[in-house]
Amino acid sequence: MTMTQTVLSVSDVEKNFTMHLQGGTRLNVLRNVNFEVHAGECVVLGGASGAGKSSILKMVYGNYAAAGGSIVLDAGTAGGAVDLAIADPRRVLAARRDSMGYVSQFLRCVPRVPAISVVAEPLLERGVGADEARDRAAALLTQLGIPERLWTLPPATFSGGEQQRVNIARGFIAELPMLLLDEPTASLDSRNRDVVVDLIAEKRAKGVAMLGIFHDVEVRERVADRIIDVEAFA
Ligand SMILES: Nc1ncnc2c1ncn2[C@@H]1O[C@H](COP(=O)(O)OP(=O)(O)OP(=O)(O)O)[C@@H](O)[C@H]1O
């Protein structure tokens, strides 16, 4: 993949919410959403609270349906380009497996699974051998300052910050062409914020296309190649 290749093209996307508890009132949140994300850049969604940043990220990941327009992911993988605005759920799941990762702020804890397995799992699911997956998980946990004594324990009892770092390790471990970042540095201390900024830089150098939300102004300035003002799509 060359660095200028367009990985994500969002064209004329609209989003409305129908408020069923308010007599079906329609809330028009976004219209004429148009932007692209290229390989090797981190594009940040900016704009005031309520502008629709999370809604855009959720539509790209396929969690929210779009009311119109297209969201084409063309990651150069075997499955070809997919329009996530209209793709059936199986194609969305295939796109997630082959092309698109999502790093949120919160870890969904699976009971009784040790932290190192939680982190290694995305690699195992994609056919990486157990030893290599474990080594790479260990390296990331070390980079994120999770002490080795915690690796064999399930993260359910970890502190909030420890859980968040396990989640970041899990989100960054797979080598996918597109990565969605939903406030991955929120409530991290400055040392770990720096680690996440480094992880983003590593992904950029590998040509990964990234689209994210970062409320922390300092982090945003450090990671953003471009900031898109979502308020322009009101
Ligand atoms: N599932 C939903 N049902 C109804 N309204 C929703 C839903 N999700 C979002 N909205 C509304 O859409 C608008 C945009 O919300 P969104 O969460 O995308 O904004 P945001 O820019 O990410 O805000 P913040 O920075 O506060 O997280 C808001 O007015 C919100 O109330």
Automatic annotation (TrEMBL):
Keywords: ATP-binding, Lyase, Nucleotide-binding
Record-level Gene Ontology MF annotations: lyase activity
Domain of life, per lineage: Bacteria
UniProt-listed InterPro entries: AAA+_ATPase, ABC_transporter-like_ATP-bd, ABC_transporter-like_CS, CP_lyase_PhnL, P-loop_NTPase
Pfam families listed in its UniProt record: ABC_tran
Signal peptide bounds: none
Sequence ranges assigned to domain ABC transporter in this UniProt record: 8-234
Keyword ATP-binding in record: yes
Entries under SUPFAM superfamilies matching the protein: P-loop containing nucleoside triphosphate hydrolases
Family in the record: Belongs to the ABC transporter superfamily.
Protein name (Swiss-Prot/TrEMBL): Phosphonate C-P lyase system protein PhnL
Annotated source species: Gryllotalpicola reticulitermitis
